[in-house]
Design goal:
By secondary structure, the protein is α+β, with helices and mostly antiparallel strands. The chain is 28% helix and 28% strand. The longest helix is centred in the middle third of the chain and has 41 residues.
Length: 345
């Protein structure tokens, strides 16, 4: 049973970046951690868990499931959920990492999120459509709140779905055109996949919420800024062209809120600089927020069904902006996002 005296808890989302124990390889035969590199990566993860102590944590890019489960168990996470296995080629080359969830609170049910085939057809997608990475749904028993459905995702990346096939005799201009076409069309195909994954997941979450009434937490690497039109529907707040206040109020029970937005609302006394949202991923000269925690109305102080408030939001990114090689050399290419949820008086 959860500790009834605990009045606050923490949730984190953590992209582990190629978490695979040697001597196995990730993606290519020569991409293998040395024993020293692996120990450094394990130590970095353990240090994060010790310093920040999230109670519930969603992981992405998991290859070595048993190793991760053992590592987090040593840090006090006795409950662990995973619903898929990575692909193994030639006995030691791993592809298609999975997501997982670890919790200090009891997990009472675990399932993968199914694809609604009827909805897939209505969306104009192939009947064989599936999530690029299976979504974990772990129902966690949280103090004072009760059952909460925690979803961990790693939506399809922006990497183009296909590459240009170039004939060696193709002219320079022809090669450029083919690569450009592959970049644009392949990138849009990835966007369709990512947006469709978010849509199918959201519809499942709404239907489950209607059946169970459970609170909801959605966390993970979205591979896309949330405000972008591809994923904006995850935080849809209102029924369009509907002036019925009762229906709009009911709608709030089924919508998700960005934890950062709730934190901003609750921290009005902080300066504009303190409330500037930090990036979670850097690529070349650009940066973006790709890692999110979304919450249902139980965590929104403006909602009637509210239990908890977002009292802190931590973007752990020192390893990205000011790394120390001996410490951070095998960490991760994403910031680790965590929030503190405090029980309302």
């Amino acid at each position: 049973m959860p500790n009834s005296t605990q009045t606050a808890f923490k949730v984190a989302t953590f992209n582990l970046f190629n978490y695979l124990a040697p001597p196995d390889a990730f993606y290519d035969f020569d991409r293998i951690y040395s024993a020293e590199q692996w120990q450094k990566k394990q130590r970095w993860i353990t240090t994060y868990l010790t310093e920040h102590q999230p109670d519930i944590i969603g992981f992405q890019e998991v290859f070595s499931i048993e190793s991760l489960q053992s590592l987090v168990a040593d840090s006090g996470y006795q409950h662990f959920a995973v619903v898929d296995q990575p692909t193994v080629i030639d006995d030691f080359i791993y592809r298609d990492p999975v997501v997982a969830l670890a919790s200090k609170f009891p997990i009472v049910d675990v399932a993968s999120v199914p694809v609604d085939k009827d909805l897939v057809i209505q969306l104009g997608l192939s009947a064989e459509f599936d999530f690029s990475r299976q979504v974990v749904r772990a129902t966690v028993d949280i103090p004072h709140l009760g059952l909460c459905d925690c979803y961990v995702v790693h939506f399809k990346s922006k990497r183009a779905t296909w590459q240009a096939e170039l004939d060696p005799l193709t002219s320079l201009e022809g090669k450029v055109i083919e690569q450009f076409k592959a970049q644009v069309a392949g990138g849009w195909a990835s966007s369709i996949q990512r947006g469709s994954e978010a849509t199918l997941l959201m519809m499942h979450m709404v239907e489950r919420r209607a059946k169970t009434g459970n609170a909801m937490i959605l966390m993970g690497d979205f591979n896309n800024p949330l405000q972008d039109g591809i994923l904006a529907h995850l935080t849809t707040a209102n029924l369009l062209f509907n002036n019925d206040q009762q229906q709009q109020q009911l709608m709030q029970f089924y919508t998700l809120r960005d934890a950062w937005t709730l934190y901003e609302t609750n921290q009005a006394v902080l300066s504009e600089e303190q409330l500037k949202r930090a990036a979670t991923h850097y690529f070349g000269q650009s940066s973006s927020v790709l890692d999110y925690i979304l919450l249902s109305s139980e965590f929104d102080t403006k909602a009637q069904s509210n239990f908890y408030e977002v009292s802190n939001y931590i973007n752990t990114d020192k390893h990205l902006i000011n790394p120390i090689f001996d410490i951070d050399g095998e960490s991760t290419d994403h910031a680790v996002v965590s929030i503190c949820l405090r029980l309302r008086a």
